[in-house]
Amino acid sequence: MGHFLTQDFYLNLYPTQDLTFKFGISSGLKAPDLGSRYDGYYSSRDTADQYGNNGLDVERTLSYEISTIYEWIWADISATAFYTQFSDAISTQTYQSGQQLPNGYGDCGAYGGAFAQYMKMLIKLYQKALS
Prior knowledge:
Blueprint: E1 8-13, E2 19-30, E3 40-45, E4 48-52, E5 59-71, E6 76-96, E7 115-130
Parallel strand pairs: 4-7
Antiparallel strand pairs: 1-2, 2-5, 3-4, 5-6, 6-7
């Protein structure tokens, strides 16, 4: 896995006493748990058999944010928009009992679960929001 440095940079501008503009860039990561990095069946939770994938990597994010805040005597008004880019996003694929599992793991339900969950990587994923 290795060592990682996550960074945040935010800039606040105050053109007037009542008005604020905020700009920000931040990065982050999420490492998969050890079980999900195991190649094959590693546990059962409730009625789901859990299958790992030794090809999982660290999920990384890069986020951009812009905000405007107006502080008024009767209320504060704000608007925020952000854009997040995920690299190597981790996803769970669910299989129903009897379905063929990937990587030659056999059929779903072999370990008693009603369904199976398999961890996999997504190449790119984007999230946008306006609030």
